[in-house]
């Protein structure tokens, strides 16, 4: 699939999801869910306290693989950017964490998701939130303008991950934190198996191996890179979905179990190394 085709597929899928949420109050990532979308990837990510702080539509439109707001340390007065913000759930929760003196941006390329997110913002009555239209490979914010970047299983959908990570580095302030959830893989996996499982894990996905992810972050300029698994997926989690696609799940299991996971990916934009240190002039006594 070409970069343009992948982008169009992602835009179409998430646009359709937003329309379903707005029209019928339901959503589903995957083509064969018969159980009300009880997806082990996207379900049970937000506790009842968090769910009670946001409109139901924001929760329904969430197709992430983890809850980055529970994993990232957000402080009052910080500026937060959510890459691929969808219906706005993580933006709205982040806005409460950074308080009125802070700001939470959401970035999404899908008109339908942006419309849903702005409606959720209105319902939530949150003022320190702004949703931007754009792509994570071309973030419409100035250099050095964001304290924390969060995201939930969106970077794995990018056809140009190197550029997306360079853009994240560009907009972060020196000392700023990259704190995203993403789907990653571990160890060697046959190409046809990888394609089948990633179809399930991310609807349209291109997850990186954890070591490749580290390498790409370092190449973008990040330091202190950490990858912490949060959910390890077993083949039984995907049995219904994979069987419907004609895949022999029993033969697949030994080559899949433990190799696909959601992970929390942390990194830091380093401070300038040659910053001048101010030293007050010596007094007569010190001389």
Oligomer: single chain
Q: Structural class, from helix and strand content?
A: alpha/beta
Shape: globular
Q: Termini distance? A: 71 Å
Strand content: 15-25%
The helix content, as a percent range, equals: 25-40%
* Number of discrete helical segments: 11
Sketch the major β-sheet.
8 strands, mixed
| Computed CA radius of gyration, to the nearest angstrom | 20 Å
Order of helices and strands: HHHHEHEHEEHEHEHEHHE
Nearest-integer average pLDDT: 77
Number of strands: 8
Poorly predicted tracts of residues: 25-44, 282-287
Brief descriptors of the model:
single chain, 287 residues, 11 helices
Descriptive report:
By secondary structure, this protein is α/β, with parallel strands linked by helices. The protein is built from eleven helices and eight strands. Helix 1 packs across helix 6 and helix 7 packs across helix 9. The longest helix is centred in the first third of the chain and has 22 residues, at 3-24. The radius of gyration is 20 Å and the shape is globular. Residues 25-44 and 282-287 have low confidence and may be disordered.
